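Item description
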Amino acid sequence: KEGLTDCKITVSNSLDEYLIRELIRQGACIDSFGVGERLITSKSDSVFGGVYKLGALKENGVWIPKMKLSDNVEKTTIPGIKGLYRFFKDGKAIADVVTLKEEIIDENKPYLLFDPDFPWKNKLVEDFKAVNLLEPIFIDGKQVYKSPNLDEIRNYHKKQMSMLWDELKRFDYPHQYYVDLSKPLWDIREKLLKEFSKDF
């Protein structure tokens, strides 16, 4: 009304993704949202089931896979030195696959995706693209990675989000995005589980 069109409107105070979505739906004239406590306290998932534990020991120059066993399935770790690939088909991400570091995914051959906890849930995929998601930052104590600027980070994020199906991105009852294990890595995990679970 006063012609102060350069003035930016920022809102905050206990905002989360649900409240922000409703404000946008209602046409609120807001330029930016300040999210604090709901972000740092991870209100929707206050306990993180994943853990960072020892994956391998180096003995005589050779990495030996190791794993932690737990009554809590989420805390039973995946052994070995690992790699990580994202599978794309028709321009959309369909699954991530944790591999052994030395594994190379051959895009010219069919690849079996399967749920590591329920291996009978599987799908053979063809005509896919596999992208290595791991990029070294330090090698032998030297930085080998160029940190992107904010615009590059923003653009990368937008591109990656555009490659996810809409049903994965909805807040309520989203479809599950699968993170699978490669067959060689799964075999090592199962071997170690059988070896040590009898003493557990």
Notes: The CA atoms of residues 11 and 33 lie 5 Å apart. The longest strand covers residues 92-100.
